[in-house]
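Working notes for the structural subgroup meeting. M.R. asked for a predicted model of this chain before we commit to crystallization trials. I am recording the input and output together here so anyone reviewing the notebook later can reproduce the run.

Input as submitted:
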Amino acid sequence: MAVPPSGPPQTGLDHRTLETYETIWGALSVALVWLLFVGVIASMISGTFPLLSGGGHGVVKAGRVDPARLDATPFARPGLVRTAQGLELYIVARAFTFTPAVVHVPVDTPVAIHITSADVVHGFQVTGTTINDEILPGHVASFTVTFRHPGPQNVICNEYCGAGHHAMTTRFIVDPKEN
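Returned structure, recorded in token form:
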């Protein structure tokens, strides 16, 4: 007669199998940490890391400004400006307001909009359109839009920015063409 083996039943996961799994997970973890490290270094070198690339610039340069020195940029006087390239609109978001609060733009005319934040992260959404962007301090969000229908276009901050967030709005008044 055969004697049954003593001890706990075998489950198929012996010490060598578990050690192999642990080695695979350990190697995967080291590889991911290494990729994260390389990504941060590449971000610093390419200028997408904000603490090393944006400091001290007083002018709009590659979509960045120093939020503490907006007075040395076109954002010092926010509003609609006619340039050789066409109409450009500069907007500053800060502490529950957009500056300017109301902007008159002509219908069927391309307007290059440049927005930055002077304090915290804000949102910029023109209701009834696909215009929706996140506005970060020190970064300039730029896009061109052509309003096709006269009338008001409301703009809201759709990124929670503090206690007065619910009242943070501005408005585009799209003026009809003059005859």
